[in-house]
Amino acid sequence: MEWLEKWWAEASGWQHNTVLTLGVIILMWIIRHFALKLVFKNIQNVKDRYYWKNGVKYTTFFIGFILIGSIWISEVESIATFVGLVSAGLTIALKDPIVNIVGWVFIIFRKPFVVGDRIQIGDHAGDVIDIRVFQFTINEIGNWVDADQSTGRIIHIPNGKIFTESQVNFTQGFSHIWNEIGVMVTFESNWERAKGILKSVADRHCPKFTEAAAKKLLEASKKYMIFYNKIDPIIYTSVKDSGVMLTMRYLCIPTQRRGSAHAIWEDILKEFERCDDIDFAYPTQRIYYNLKEGKDGARKIE
């Protein structure tokens, strides 16, 4: 120990500071290690554990930064000079990282989205799975997958993008989205019967969504100017080139959009199969003989 005391007495200021800095880093690492062990041991909920884990990381980093700063600040003539020099250098050389840090602060406090939300920012859409100081990460949906389902890729997006790109949040506010399923039947089909079938299918599948949506709508109206006169499923009628278009409009949870459409389509196919007066329409060509097929008042008599 004598040699250590002798070295410490003879060492210069920057050597003292270097040793103290290493000591702070080791101490913060040990504290963080054991704190995370306690978090993983006592918190089972994945989302709560994620927030606690990040809280421990950021807290130990912040404390370590303050301690190390206090060690080295004495080497500078004044705090104002130190802060001025560092700020000027960072502003010029680290513009993008600083913007990302400011974006992170905005995300944490303003909460345009949180972990678990389904969002779209620019051309990228997905579920938010991580938010860090410089970037946030989404589990991508869509792209080459023909539905709002995961592609298996994760995308890291700089936090600064929230200041330059529009953000779409599927989850916050109302928490439900409107989905539409278009069913086209031929002009010769009993379209009124088809419309009744679609309405019964929608009512069979959507009550749970409608009931939950009504509660969420009430909550959302306290924060946003959101209101709908009607949230029950509805079937709209229109005419297209190939037939009568019946459009089913209903509410669903964003992450269950494809599943709900799948279940509804299977019921529609089964119901239509039982009907001999309903046919699906699709682009085709046919010869129409007015004298035999036209209405009595519309036939051309030569």
Notes on the structure:
- The structure is a single chain.
- This protein has 302 residues and is α+β, with helices and mostly antiparallel strands.
- The chain folds into three domains: 2-93; 113-169, SH3 type barrels; 177-273, Alpha-Beta Plaits.
- The protein has nine helices and eight strands.
- The strands form two sheets. It has a five-stranded antiparallel sheet. A three-stranded antiparallel sheet has the order 6-8-7.
- α2 (13-42) runs antiparallel to α3 (46-72) and α6 crosses α8 (257-273).
- The protein is elongated and about 105 Å long.
- The mean pLDDT is 80.
Give a short synopsis of this structure.
This protein has 3 domains: 2-93; 113-169, SH3 type barrels; 177-273, Alpha-Beta Plaits, CATH 3.30.70. Helices cover 49% and strands 18% of the residues. The chain is built from 9 helices and 8 strands.
